[in-house]
Amino acid sequence: MTISKLTLRGSARLKEVDKCKIVDETSRRRRHRKNMEILEADNYHEDPHADLVMSKKIPKFDENLETRTRSRKKEKNPEYYQAKFRKHILQLLEEDRMEAEITGRYSYQDLVAEDTDHPARHFCAVCGFFSQYVCLACGMRYCSIKCMDTHMDTRCLKWTA
């Protein structure tokens, strides 16, 4: 019995499609919401490398002995209070809604843009350019083969549980 080369080799694309997990719209929305929450939480962290100093014992040439011996009390500037009392975007929207009810004006959530005659634009989830293609597994958009490879390696739902 002879086996042809085509039956042994097979299609790599079809094997890859079998590995993909096709996700429904609610799972896509849940994943999108989770990613947005992670990004929102990431905005409130200070950069851990922002104030690294090589050594605190290195003298600065412009300071004299009186300034070095004096105790340095940390002054609280406006940036300190802004960092301490930061508000989440949902808190800001809620405050705006409550203020709008009191003053009788429109809130941010009440404002709606008019419907357009133009079709919706779709952007690549990897690079941000216009996209024409959609991932079959997770529904995210990409614009080229390079972006598709990046998406498959890092962002696609087929690797998430």
Please explain how this structure is put together.
- With 161 residues, the chain is mainly α.
- Among the domains are: 73-107, no CATH class; 122-161, no CATH class.
- It has seven helices and two strands.
- A two-stranded antiparallel ribbon has the order 1-2.
- Give the overall average pLDDT: 76
Backbone structural class: mainly alpha
Q: Mind summarizing the main beta sheet?
A: 2 strands, antiparallel
- The secondary-structure element order is HHHHHHEEH
Number of strands: 2
- Stretches where pLDDT is under 50 for at least 5 consecutive residues are none
Question: How are strands sequenced across the largest beta sheet?
Answer: 1-2
Radius of gyration: 27 Å
How much of the sequence lies in strands comes to under 5%
List the topology elements.
Layout: H1 5-9, H2 12-19, H3 25-42, H4 65-69, H5 78-84, H6 89-103, E1 133-134, E2 141-142, H7 145-154
GO biological process, one term: chromatin remodeling
GO molecular function, one term: zinc ion binding
Organism: Agrilus planipennis
Brief rundown of the structure:
The chain contains 7 helices and 2 strands. It starts with a helix and ends in a 7-residue tail after the last helix. The chain has helices at residues 5-9, 12-19, 25-42, 65-69, 78-84, 89-103, 145-154; strands spanning 133-134, 141-142.
